[in-house]
Design goal:
Blueprint: H1 8-16, E1 20-25, E2 28-29, H2 39-51, E3 57-59, E4 76-77, H3 81-97, E5 102-107, H4 113-121, E6 129-134, H5 148-157, H6 177-189, H7 191-195, H8 208-231
Parallel strand pairs: 1-3, 1-5, 5-6
Antiparallel strand pairs: 2-4
Helix pairs in contact: 2-5, 2-8, 3-4, 5-8
């Protein structure tokens, strides 16, 4: 259920029945020449909306600004990890004051992981149960940045993809694991320096059909995870 477009009585009814909240957490940053800077927020919002269908969830609008400094000098709008943690704290405390006991943070940006992990692990007792889950942990597809997977997902959920501009980026297939890890560390410092054109992967063969298939897998697995946590059959571990 979309929280943002509902009236107070409708929301109060869902909350009194035990509905949990879902908050997509994204970013505003470059995704190569073919994807919009809203990509991480668009995908996490689509995943959250699908996972949150039905009476057990209230889906919040996304947090569109994340920790993306590593993408400079390509376009990005970033906040510090401490700022994101403070923002999440205020939002979660407000939701809890309204009677919500469980909050799921659906993360769509790799650079947010430190802030989300620190925020969840640092929560004091007595507040809501907060669950941090990165959506790419729930697919067998190899995650990328502006590559085949992310571009396919965007083709499935958005009309803003410009496939005519898609270009191959950094491809690590066949590399030794140690070399890939070195590239990941370099990308965390400067994504443009590590990848050249801001793309990790090759988007040129991406399709909406593949995106719908990957999205369905993510939603199925992630919804099972969320419901399991609400029902007490899965542990509250950070999966980012």
């Amino acid at each position: 259920m979309d929280l943002h477009s509902r009236t107070d009585p409708a929301l109060r009814g869902r909350i009194s029945a035990g509905a949990a909240a879902i908050i997509p957490v994204g970013s505003t940053e470059q995704h190569g020449p073919h994807l919009p800077v809203s990509t991480d927020s668009d995908i996490s919002s689509a995943v959250a909306a699908a996972v949150g269908r039905g009476p057990r969830f209230l889906v919040s609008p996304a947090i569109y600004t994340g920790v993306s400094f590593e993408h400079a000098p390509f376009f990005q709008i970033s906040i510090r990890e401490s700022t994101l943690e403070t923002l999440l704290g205020d939002v979660c405390d407000s939701l809890h004051a309204n009677g919500i006991r469980d909050i799921f943070l659906i993360n769509g940006h790799y650079g947010n992981r430190g802030a989300l992990s620190g925020f969840v692990s640092g929560r004091a007792e007595g507040g809501p149960r907060v669950h941090a889950l990165s959506y790419w942990r729930f697919t067998r597809s190899r995650f990328d940045h502006g590559g085949f997977v992310e571009t396919s997902l965007m083709l499935a959920v958005s009309g803003a993809v410009r496939m005519s501009r898609a270009r191959k980026g950094l491809v690590t297939d066949g590399m030794e694991p140690a070399s890939v890890e070195r590239l990941k560390r370099a990308a965390a410092e400067s994504f443009p320096a590590a990848t050249g054109n801001g793309v990790w992967g090759d988007p040129r063969s991406a399709t909406a059909e593949a995106g719908r298939r990957i999205l369905a897998e993510i939603v199925r697995n992630l919804r099972q995870e969320c419901l399991g946590r609400l029902d007490g059959t899965r542990p509250n571990e950070i999966l980012i």
